[in-house]
Please model this.
Amino acid sequence: MDNILEVKDLNIDIVDNGSIKSLVENVSFNVKRKGSLGIVGESGCGKSITALSIMQLLSYPLKASRGEIIYRDGDKQIELREANKGVMRKIRGKEISMIFQEPMTALDPLFTIEEQIGEVLEIHTDLRKSEIRKLVLEMLDKVGIPQPERIMKNYPHQLSGGMLQRVVISMALILNPKLIIADEPTTALDVTIQAQILELINDLRSSYDTSIIMITHDLGVIAETCEDVIVFYAGQIVEQGSVIDIFHNTAHPYTRGLISAVRSLGDKDTELFTIAGTVPLAGEFGKGCRFADRCSQALPICSEREPELVEISASHKSKCWLYNGGDTSD
Amino acid sequence: MTNVILEVENLKKYFPIKEGIFNRTKNYVRAVEDVSFSVREKETFAIVGESGCGKSTTGRSILRLIEPTSGSLIYNGRDLLALSNEELRKLRREIQIIFQNPYSSLNPRMTVRKLLSEPLEHNFRLGQGEIKERVEAMVDKVGLSRKHLDRYPHQFSGGQRQRISIARSIITNPKLVIADEPVSALDVSIQSQILNLLMELQKDLGLTMIFISHDLNVVRRISNRVAVMYLGSIAEIGHTEDIFNSPLHPYTEALLSAVPSLDPTVKKQRNILKGEIPSPINPPSGCAFQTRCSKVMNICKEKRPELKEIDKGHRVACHIY
Model:
């Protein structure tokens, strides 16, 4: 199998008042070359820090305490967690780049658009000023910015949210990276602009053969842009599979709850589907399944022992006792 | 025919842009440009639109949290704009608002008990015993527990805080509640809990609700009638089913088709809008939507379309009709 990124048993901890709490636990997934992986989950489930840890951008009090993050490119294989600063600097932007949620804060207010996109090229290439300028102009044109000659002289505050997100995307794409991590790239945008940006990301991905990790809380965005999906709940993967597995053969009660909560909006006659209760906080997890308290199908074993993430079909895994056969024997 | 509780006519709000040492008004942000609609008793009337379309300014103008530039607001036969501060203060127990962000709309230094007692102390002459009773009944009603009463807002999750905000808004027994994006800051699984609560309260208490939102799925579910706003004006207004099943305005069509589908096997035929929302400082001539409209005609650039009734109760501002 041809993977561009393999994450194995990743654990992320936080140091809180001297005690260590686990935020992400035993997370493993692969990103296929030219593939698109969606990571979905609610606030605080650990999806964003997982993304940051791939880029080695976690800082105190957060720490990736265990696991492997392997980046593969042809014969090259780099373990990112062990990579030193110099190696990481070459990877960021050039091999793997990131699109952040808030384009308004991802850009530096003191530099023009041209300077900020150009900086990426200055650091990673030996191009001359005039060549850089030409590339920036081309890139802005590709992401659909009107009058790029004028816009590139502007400062971030002069542009709208949708325009700024295009700028951020052009920064992420200008070195033609092999993998893009997009952390809620359209959450801060209006729906009509979101549709534009998602279409742009899909188009660019097919013309550049880039792989993408799309992190979002919006199931609709996942259904429209991803081939594979992982569902996070309270720092763990609870379900993993192809987009068809997730939406049409939904296995985990949490995933089913999320989908039903959105779907039931379309049904006027019944009460809205809800998942009772709230997400447990880090450090307050019980010994059983973390979703057990909120689960309508909970079995006695669910609050006793934690289920494994087991295969239910070749492409589909679920971390739930309903699929472990509720087997208590061993 | 049900009674009209609120009549908004030709509402306008221009925010001045001041510049220079003499603070002279250089220009205006035309946030709300000539908006008219009426809200009927016990219905949920939704105002939907993208950021900057003027939906929140409209909501806040009704409460006079923002003073409108011109227009008229008639609530149950009384002109809201003619009220003195004292009369307005008294009336606000009948018209309440729920804000979007439950993290910033509650005073962090007040306990839940204090947060809920305050509106009663200000608006009614009640004894301490009765206040206590009403506050306790209210926490039960919104699905919180009485042991929560002596906690501070930071000790609650987002969904619980929104329950507190809702309790605070309805404790004065209002007739009209303006909910300004009440679930936008919440996660999906919590969002439906709060929507269920709002629908239940509305039914129990006979509230009239103006529901302001950018989320079309939520609006479709919760409202009886919808007004779609674009750049300060109403593009289309009508019964929820009419708006969603047979949208007339090209903007409404585009807005509906932009919502991502939940089914990965369905590839939606998209009608993706080109370009950006124009600036309300310098709006386009004629129809506000003409710069992005796929069906634009010559007249659209010259003349502003009026709202025209196409079907019963379904009105649209577009030259096509």
Summary: Chain A has a mean pLDDT of 89. Chain A touches chain B at residues 42-43, 146, 160-163, 190-196, 198-199, 217-221, 223-224, 243-244, 247-248, 257-259, 261-266, 268, 271-276, 278-279 (CB under 8 Å).
